[in-house]
Amino acid sequence: TPALIAPQKADGNLGGFLDILPQILGRHFRKRQLSLQIRGLQKDLKNRMQNDTKKREEEASQGHKEGKVLRKLLSFRRSVIPPSSVAVKIPPKKLASPNERRKAVIDAFSHAWKGYRAFAWGHDELKPLSESFNEVFGFGGLGLTLIDALDTMWIMGLQNEFEEAKKWVLEELHFDKNVEVNLFEITIRILGGLLSTYHLSGDSLFLEKAKDLGHRLMPAFRTPSKIPYSHVNIGTGVTDPHELFSPVAAVTSIQLEFRELSRLTGDETFQEAVREVMKHIHSLPGKNDGLVPMHVNTRSGFFTLVNAFTLGANTDSYYECLLKQWIQGGKKESQLLEDYIEAIEGVKKHLLRQSRVRNLTFVGELVGGRFEAKMDHYVCFLPGTLALGVHHGLTNDHMELAKALMETCYQMYHQFKSGLSPENVYFHINPRVIRKDMRVRPQDNFNVLRPETVESLFYLYRFTGDKKYQDWGWEILQCFNKYSRIPSGGYDFLSLDKYVFNTEAHPLPIWTSA
Which prosthetic group or cofactor does it need (predicted)? Predict the structure, then answer.
């Protein structure tokens, strides 16, 4: 069990976040042997963390007062607030042969795809209850679901469905539309989906579409700080200069796609833009032992909301993509590895705790200098990321932490009657008579089919061979089918030594030369 260290007080500067609260709530939201390199980094980080802690203790003064307001903001980080839950029954646990499980996964995809094809073809999203559609990217949409699913259909061997979708891309997908898009969402889903499908199928159609889209997104990076705006019009190139704040995760999780686009096209413009972002974030003050605040000012380039640290919404994929960029680039960019290792040490120091009943290891939040025993479902990306790092040469203590957190993420499903995880949970950590590890607030008592837990189960099973992770995933799939499936609506051949998945699970190749 990892040693748990009491949190230090966080920086006390709110960074003027009261002024930007309406805007935030209004948006949708050197080469060495690896082991020697890591040991050297850990020694440097230990010294740096000691100095940083002393500095923070001298500067922090307003944490408790500001924490009340920060908690209010954190409570609004929701994309969906569903109607009240209905009563549910405990689903039966049914084991199945691996072949039957593969078929069930393909069937689940095919069922959803048929609903999309029937009621939302060419549009962004299916609205299954009303048998209609929703446009995420403005009037007419961009076929978001269709493009997001292309590589999945290819991997599953659904060739007829793939060819039909490819025909739509060829004839109907055009980016010369007067629509404002979210840079993060369109990059990880559409740009990432096109690049991944190009690599899997070898069809240049998808690369040409990706190149066109990439050029249309570049105006978002034209800011005084080089931190991109969150939104850009892909038809006109217009951005909103009054959009001053971007989520840290949103500007640091798009690097895999733009880097790969440069590698494929020979145009360094894409890679240089996202590289500047990472260099800037690396050098910024305001971190807490590698942990980053939630937002960054596109004009000044400084962090805002600097008294809240979480691995949940607005920061989660920053940590994930540090490691994945390092892997993608052939493990040659030591700055990325340094930032990743420092951040994991920061998690251990400030955010890691255990519940009272089953001693479940979880990752909480630091708000206004106070620890909150709250864990978002988003945080369940971390077990898989830790395991991926160990597979690529990082120290085995990361795998032990990955296993402990994977157990917790599974229990976030297993301990609830529906077998589905709430949006977030609060863990019991105080010494009092209790029977449960976690509780859920009424406003968090919903599930929106988030992928973090099942993706982490995929990594843990791949790297350990322990069938329990496969069984847990099967159990969760059964519960999704039981409670989330309505009438309207993988195969193991991708090597994790050759591919790295972006934050939307689109596989991109690891570079073998640079």
Answer: Ca(2+)
Q: How does pLDDT run across 158-196, given as a tens digit for each residue?
A: 999 999 999 999 999 999 999 999 999 999 999 999 999
Domains in the chain (CATH in brackets) are 99-307 (1.50.10.10)
Active site residue 423: yes
> What burial letters (b/e) apply to 66-87, b meaning 16+ CB within 10 Å?
bbebbbebbeebeeeeeeeeee
Joined together, the tokens standing for residue 485 give 């499936």
- Decide: residue 339, CB within 10 A, 0-12 exposed, 13-18 middle, 19+ buried: buried
Q: For the beta carbon of residue 13, count every other beta carbon within 10 angstroms.
A: 20
* CA nearest to 309, candidates 55, 67, 47: 67
**Farthest CA pair distance, the chain:** 64
- Report residue 155 as tokens: 């991997």
Q: pLDDT (tens digit, 9 = 90+) per residue, 292-342?
A: 999 999 999 999 989 999 999 999 999 999 999 999 999 999 999 999 999
Token pair for 412: 């976030």
pLDDT over 80 (residue 102): yes
Choose the catalytic residue: 452, 455, 475, 504: 452
CA distances from 317 to 52, 70, 91, 281 (A): 24, 21, 32, 14
Residue 455: active-site member: no
Catalytic residue among 52, 124, 185, 504: 185
What's the pTM? 0.83
Catalytic residue among 52, 257, 260, 316: 316
The token pair at 511 is 């570079």
A 10 A CB-CB count for 204 gives 10
User: Among 396, 395, 255, which Cα is nearest to 319's?
Assistant: 255
Taking the C-alpha atoms of residue 498 and residue 490, their distance in angstroms, rounded to an integer, is: 17
Residue 11 appears among annotated catalytic residues: no
Which of 66, 257, 423, 455 is catalytic? The answer is 423
- Report CA-CA distances (Å) from 232 to 60, 159, 331: 37, 34, 32
